Amino acid sequence: MIRAGPILAMLLAVFALWYAAAVPMNIREVLTEAERAGAAVTPATAVERRDANALGLVLANPGQISGTWAQDRPRLPAPHQVAGELWQSTVMEEIEGRRGLLNSGSLSNRGLLLHAWITLSATALGFLIGAGAGILLAIGIVHSKTMEKSVMPWAIVSQTVPIVALAPMIVVVLYSVGLQGLLPKAVISAYLSFFPVVVGMVKGLRAPDAMQTDLMRTWDASGWQVLTRLRLPASMPYLFASLKIAVAAALVGAIVGELPVQGGGLGARMLAGSYYGQTAQIWAALFLAAALAAVLVAAIGGAQRLALRRMGGAA
Amino acid sequence: MSAAILALALWLGLWALNVWLATGPLANRIWARMAVPLLFGLTILVLWEIAVRALQVPLVILPPPSQIGARFGASLPVLWADFVQTIGRGALSGYLIGCGAAFLTAIAVDRFVFLKRGLLPLASFMAALPIVGTAPILVMWFGFDWQSKAAVVVVMVFFPMLVNTVAGLSETTAMQRDLMKSWGAGYWQGLLKLRLPAAMPFVFNGLKICTTLALIGAIVAEFFGSPTLGLGFRITTSVGQLALDMVWAAILVAALAGTGFYGLVALIERGVTFWHPSQRG
Amino acid sequence: QDLDEVRLQLQWVTQAQFAGYYVALDQGFYEEEGLDVEILPGGPDIAPPQVLAGGGADVMLNWMPSALAAREKGLPVVNIAQPFASSGLMLTCWKDTGITGPQDFRGKTIGVWFFGNEYPFLSWMSQEGIPTEGGDDGVTVLKQGFNVDPLIQRQADCISTMTYNEYGQVLDAGITEDELVTFKYEEEGVATLEDGMWVLEENLEDPDFVDKMVRFVRASMQGWKWAGENPEEAAQIVLDYDETGAQTEAHQVRMMGEIAKLTEGSDGSLDEAAYRRTVDTLLAGGSDPVISQEPEGAFTHEITEQALQ
Amino acid sequence: MMNAPIPQTVISARGIDLTFETADGPVHALKGVDLDIAKGEFVSFIGPSGCGKTTFLRVVAALERPTAGEVSVNGLSPDEARRARAYGYVFQAAGLYPWRTIGGNIALPLEIMGFAKAERARRVREVLELVELGGFEKKYPWQLSGGMQQRASIARALAFDADILLMDEPFGALDEIVRDRLNEELLKLWARTGKTTLFVTHSIPEAVYLSTKIVVMSPRPGRITDVIDSPLPRERPLDIRDSREFIEIAHRVREGLRAGHED
Amino acid sequence: MMNAPIPQTVISARGIDLTFETADGPVHALKGVDLDIAKGEFVSFIGPSGCGKTTFLRVVAALERPTAGEVSVNGLSPDEARRARAYGYVFQAAGLYPWRTIGGNIALPLEIMGFAKAERARRVREVLELVELGGFEKKYPWQLSGGMQQRASIARALAFDADILLMDEPFGALDEIVRDRLNEELLKLWARTGKTTLFVTHSIPEAVYLSTKIVVMSPRPGRITDVIDSPLPRERPLDIRDSREFIEIAHRVREGLRAGHED
Ligand SMILES: Nc1ncnc2c1ncn2[C@@H]1O[C@H](COP(=O)(O)OP(=O)(O)OP(=O)(O)O)[C@@H](O)[C@H]1O
Ligand SMILES: Nc1ncnc2c1ncn2[C@@H]1O[C@H](COP(=O)(O)OP(=O)(O)OP(=O)(O)O)[C@@H](O)[C@H]1O
Ligand SMILES: Cc1ncc(C[n+]2csc(CCO)c2C)c(N)n1
Ligand SMILES: [Mg+2]
Ligand SMILES: [Mg+2]
User: Fold this and answer.
1) Is residue E64 domain-resident?
2) ipTM, 2 decimals?
3) Which of B112, B134, C143, E77 gives 20 to 30 Å between its CA and that of C198?
4) Is the minimum distance from the CB of E50 to ligand 2 under 6 angstroms?
5) pTM of the prediction?
């Protein structure tokens, strides 16, 4: 209860701000519509309003404020519009839609749930590939000076390549060499998620202090024993911290990989929404994606608690 | 077949040279330390060139590095203008505004538990908003020019910077804080003389992460509308024109700029956090 | 029996612009021809010629300027059929900006699609003698995103629209036709051919491939015919195939109506006069022409001739 | 276990209880602690690990608030005394700020208290001499050995001339020889300045050697089991440690400690 | 400063030099160290901070390679001896792995050395009894007090029955009473097992109480300044510390230390 208080207060503040911001953001179009409908607005013509200050317009036409929260294609949809769209495109679509769960027996492609699922599966696959590759690379880096010196700088450079910008092209190229379905998106996901894992795991695998590794030496432990008995357990807190970042990155990767809209997914949904000027649709997909990220991060947090409990819950 | 053997031989040879450079008697020389990653990069480029030529990959799929280099050299003025537009205007101003705002917010969040409890979860939610969705909206709000790119960058860098700075500000040990208290230090004194210096390693961690994010944000935002220049513009239009060499030349600019940007921040970090164990080597 | 596989790369997301193909698929026209067709939606980030080059598709739909440019870039693509007889491209401007003709574009901001589709606009401007570097004397060109917001938000004075899609979106946004001025490329004499079917030249040496294409074109044209006759159903079929579920029915029905006007009068074979006009427009592109030489062998009538028998 | 009130009491604790609420349940760190400390006294606290020595010092310095009971420092509450900058606190570990040089570390409390620049420089030089670190002003903490860092942290606590010196095992990490020398110096310093000093240690000889009063504590809950007023003279050469009185007091302290361990 | 060769020498060091190359220039940690240690001896190393005690132990355990000189352990090189698993090393801090229970920590070297599961369980139980931690097998390190952790770490070093025990200030962080108790127990253990033991400490009484031989070192560069063979009997009750011999040896050690500090 004590913890929920501030969040609720902040949420309220955000909603209030949001509603307030929607007024000047949308006023111009509202006035234009009102003018078309024959109402008297000041200034009277769109040309005059074009360079007018938005706040000034609001003050000059206070009667039109409620219209800014009820537009069809708002610049900034009001919270209840987004919530309504979310409700429509998840629950209502599945219940009532021609292709919804109730009527067709499978999730509707006009609803968001199917797209969230598509994105989620690409994210999961990409995350597994990326995290796995990241861990292996980190192990290599920790064990080989040459690997460290040659690969590490390029791992950094690799992240300065605007992969997000290349994603569509890569997906196309992969598609043309026969990689289809989830895999091309997962490759982008993996590319974005491997880096945080490498950085975190290199730190984590090096976390044991000199004494802990020296002890291993006095027992004449093999490299493999040191890895499994010391480095890996010691790296767990670092691993989970980076996995949380990585899973969020993987989600972004999957969404970006959906830019070529074949196959659907939340990314395709957002873009298609933007092609057809469906603002509410973009916002709904956007919020669902953020919620998905929150769930994924929370899931990793759960795994973390479980693992740390099994490891004595010290950290 | 012979190309495969040639590639393999080259790979093994260069790798062996690298092993020797990295672990051999010269390993501590500065030039050897620089040479190792460069040699690794060179190896990849050579293998790329061989692969593209041997497999006769169509130019419109993947051009060889030599052609990319030639295109880069021939298009310097265009690429320079793109660089100025995307990185000089969009990324840089967004980076400064976003990181600055996050820094100040972090100080407020650190001061008021209420904000920490209320704002941090919201900020993390905001961080999860994918750029693909936010960019079109921000382009719609802020117009086609660099301002909308800066806005996208602000949204992208805000959260990582906030989280890092908040973590950094609470990085002091109880003893360090107690000392301040025992001297009767006020809030601002504690902030300026203790918490901010102690936070610097984290602040720079955030600043480094944000360099690449800023770059990516500015470029991707250009997909959703831009004037007729900029790296993102160049990449998309060139893909459309099948000028893949130009696409890669633009990517090269982005990677060079990103690496330079990152290196610059890392350099400043060295100067500011010289005292931190990770910098003392 | 074994069906021959054909992959078709569209140049935009699933919408009624491609109704003929979806109808042919849905109504089994392809199957009747012994074809197993896979339709790959496109989008603003997919360059169909690249997909073709990489072997990701057998046929692509492309606008002729972009395809001819690819041809000059060393990717020999050949037009095998041209179901779209006329162009749907136009500029849509606010009337209140005072624009009445192309000469009024000076000093204005205009949104243009790039990605290979800027060519017709650039050659039009160079024919008019209007520089495109901005300033009072020239037009300021924006790379337009893929919706009509820039016009509605008045970030641009004019934007590119297609008669069948974006123009409808502008009207859907509540703007009335008399608030707008439109310039159809067709009417300005700078029209270039749009959605044509293109394949790689080397594939045409393979008789089996040619035979496959003949059947493909035949079935596709049958689809277009059916779509023109049953616009409502065609729109519904398109909606069913849309994987993003983003379009609305009303919009697709209207789009189908407009598309039918563009395919009208085409039996799929390329009209050489229209081809001539397209090439001339492109060659006239001023300082930075889209194509620098007269293309050769960029089309063939072989397929359509066999298909129409 | 109260000792008679002494004139000019600087610190007076009455019935201090302190309970930490932890996830595993409450930890009773201090229970019914009464103590009076007169001006200029050198009081050592000794007791097994976890008996509440540190906690008591922290209560005096207003770094911890007791659950029950009253502490007054010069008639003020600990918090008022803290804000009046009455304390010089030396923690068990050196606790130097790594981004400041030794000189900068010592100057830090002076900056915070608003000393003028020249005065700061003068004082830094002075206390550095005192702890034999002249010439190390420009070095960073990590460039010094543990013992030198500890001395720098003592210098920092001395620099601003607080009335009350609180030292929590300041010599824990040092070897016997250095420790002896620093003990001698601390004693001299104390004799010269007459600062009221509260000193925590684990070493019985150290406690006996330094103190005018030794407080023996027992753990869980932390209580005072013995308060020994030392009969040793103020002048104490190192070899006083071989004297009968010294050995007797040491014996009494050890017995007190053992008793604490037994319960 | 060599003592006469003793039959059955286990460790023999001849002219050991060790110089660390650091950014600030070379640090001479050890210089010309000669030492012979016979089977079953208990050797304490004492000397000011930074004199090279730890470094010497590390050289013996093959964790550091000397710049010059020869060490042999049972006629082997230190590295061969390490691979023959001749050492049980106890570091200054307990160094238990926090993700393993006490039992798991003790079993770890046994796992690594390939002991069978039943044998591991048996030994863990045995050494836990030995250090009086029976019943704590399933606890995690942080659930134990510092003293108990230290005992667990000693148990870990004992479990695999190495010939040579190397202990680096194992009791540094404990209070006097607990330390006394552990000293007594360590002595009993040593008497029972007869393991050759090398023990680093800062405490003179501890060194004298435990050792058959005390090595006094001086710093920079680390040299041996005195080697004292203890005339004390093997059986040592705690109050032997008040005996004349004890005090005499302690005096000699203190003098040796002071001399080291002077140069
Ligand atoms: N912040 C805290 N939260 C919970 N328990 C605490 C806290 N601080 C101290 N304690 C507990 O209070 C008791 C007294 O601790 P204190 O640090 O005062 O002991 P000490 O006498 O200084 O011991 P040492 O000699 O080991 O320094 C201990 O049992 C300790 O575990
Ligand atoms: N890895 C290293 N690199 C550089 N110098 C080192 C290193 N290890 C030890 N030294 C230096 O070698 C000298 C001897 O160190 P050592 O740890 O052996 O001292 P010690 O006698 O164990 O001291 P203490 O009692 O403080 O533990 C010191 O001056 C120390 O600074
Ligand atoms: C990046 C890109 N921009 C423009 C087009 C041209 N285009 C061809 S079909 C179509 C849809 C109209 O509703 C458009 C805009 C393209 N293919 N790709
Ligand atoms: Mg304490
Ligand atoms: Mg040591």
Assistant:
1) yes
2) 0.80
3) C143
4) yes
5) 0.82
